[in-house]
Amino acid sequence: MFYIIRLKILIDVAGFTDGEGCFLINIYRSKTTKLGEAVQLIFKLTQHSRDEQLLISLAEFLNCGKVHRYKNKETVDLIITKFSYLNEKIIPFF
After folding, report:
1. Which residue range is the domain that position 68 belongs to?
2. Structurally, how many domains does the chain consist of?
3. pLDDT tens column, 16-33
4. Could you say which DSSP state residue 32 is in?
5. What is the model's pTM?
């Protein structure tokens, strides 16, 4: 069963993103830059909390990202912020 889930994930990452995911740009304050701000690229995939195991399986399959469960929401997010992971593992699906 787990193998089937992993195979389906491989096929449907772009489809999941089309429906429940996005790429984001986060601008935040930084003491290490001249302008005092820095930019972070983010890939975020959201599912209902009942599908948390699916996002955990996807993170394990891709060997990157963190799954965040929110206390007061019924959603779970897979968030990937490391640029090399975005460039080498996520963008090729598109």
Report:
1. 2-93
2. 1
3. 677 788 999 999 999 999
4. T
5. 0.78
- Asked if residue 60 lies in contact with residue 50, where contact means CB atoms within 8 angstroms, the answer is no
Residue position matching structure tokens 């990157």? 64
Q: Which secondary structure element, helix H or strand E, spans residue 24, and what is its range? A: strand 21-29
DSSP 65: -
The C-alpha atoms of residue 93 and residue 43 are separated, in whole angstroms, by 12
Two structure tokens written together for 9: 């994930």
Give the Cα separation of 77 and 52 in Å (integer).
8
- If pLDDT is split at 50, 70 and 90, which confidence band does 12 have? low
CATH number at residue 40: 3.10.28.10
Q: What is the largest CA-CA distance in the chain?
A: 51
User: pLDDT for 58-82, tens place per residue?
Assistant: 898 889 999 999 888 899 999 999 9
